Amino acid sequence: MDLVDLRVVRSEEANGGQKEQRMAANSNNDKVFVEDIKDGDRVKTVFLVKSKAVPVSKTGKPYINLTLCDRTGELDAKVWEKAREIDKLFSKNDFVAVEGVANLYQGRLQLRVDGVARVDDAKVNIADFLRVTHADVEAMWQEVLKALKSVRNPDLKKLVSAFVRDEALVKGFKRAPAAKEIHHAFIGGLLEHTLSMIRLAERICQYYPLVDRDLTVVGCFVHDIGKTRELFYERAFDYTDAGRLVGHIVMGVEILGAKAAEAGGVSEAVEMHLKHIILSHHTELEFGSPKRPKTPEALLVGLLDDLDAKMNHWKAIFEREPGDAWTTFQKHYDRYLFKGRPYVPGGPDEETERAGPPGKGDLRYKPFAQMPLLGGKTEGGGR
Ligand SMILES: [Fe+2]
Ligand SMILES: [Fe+2]
After folding, report:
1. Separation of 101 CA from ligand 2 center, angstroms?
2. What CATH number matches the domain at 137-314, 3.40.50, 1.10.10, 1.10.1510, 1.10.3210?
């Protein structure tokens, strides 16, 4: 078990001053996760520093305002004593061993920190701090490759090879989250989201001959490719400077243009249609798309993007709030979500059926059960 020295700065009011103490905290093996921390708990564990600021209180005294996180959530934290000195010990995106007491403040848990020390990156298990797909990244990537290899259009084939040959781009594509928060906000999320859309597209294209299957599959593949550069995902997810200033839609079009130039000889029409898919995939101007979908392929990619993002987000909300049939109010959707399953006579819910049919006005429900979004051998991955 790795032990990390934790320099504790504690308020020694009885002595009328500050005194430094040393103590040891487990760096990782006894990781206490944010989701398990309750009001009144004394906490001693390692977190990732998501944000750090040193404002000044109303009394003129500086303090440190922290957002600490791990893969299960975030926790507000405050360092009230020796803020200036402690501030120098660590930075945003560092790992820190922290000791303190969690208290409810205005309905939110807040940690009053009275001990903190930076922890070396090599001593932590990164999977404890960043959410990672539950699915097998390599298996997902092979499935994406298989779908791309089935593309017959020669221009699209050339383009796809230029993308797949770019090792740095592929590395980012396999690792990036699909969003900073909301949907597929975990390492491998972009790949999982893209694969999910490709799977859906392959089925739906069989149903609507109006839609060009090759263009749609490649369109799904590239629709969010700009996320590989829009987001920072080596530590707590955030936007890159270019991500904030340019954004993944324009970045995606730029990447596509570069790959088309690299591939050489790609028809302008094919490149333009793919660019249109990227530019319109948020479907409405107010959702950030400079163009609304004007081709069946762009319409389908935009709808699948929205469908897959929402399904994944709802699953994450349901998992975060087990228990009651209703979720808390979801501001993002301006509604409560229902996660119970109503009694369906003859349905698959054996336990509910054994209990007999519901009485009048009695909506019996089973709490939401965790279920994979991706089926087959790469199943899993809602977080
Ligand atoms: Fe997008
Ligand atoms: Fe997307």
Report:
1. 40
2. 1.10.3210
Count helices and strands (H / E) in the chain: 12, 11
Provide CB contacts within 8 A for 248, sequence distance 6+: 224, 225, 226, 227, 229, 230, 231
For the whole prediction, is pTM greater than 0.70?
A: yes
Which amino acid does the sequence have at 133? T
pLDDT in tens, 293-305: 999 999 999 999 9
Ligand 1 centroid–CA 262 distance in Å is 24
Domain boundaries, the chain: 3-124, 137-314
Segment 308-355, tens digit of pLDDT: 999 999 988 888 777 677 888 999 999 999 877 665 666 655 555 455
Ligand number with the minimum distance to the CA of 230: 1
Ligand nearest to the CA of 289: 1
Q: Are 357 and 343 in contact (CB under 8 A)?
A: yes
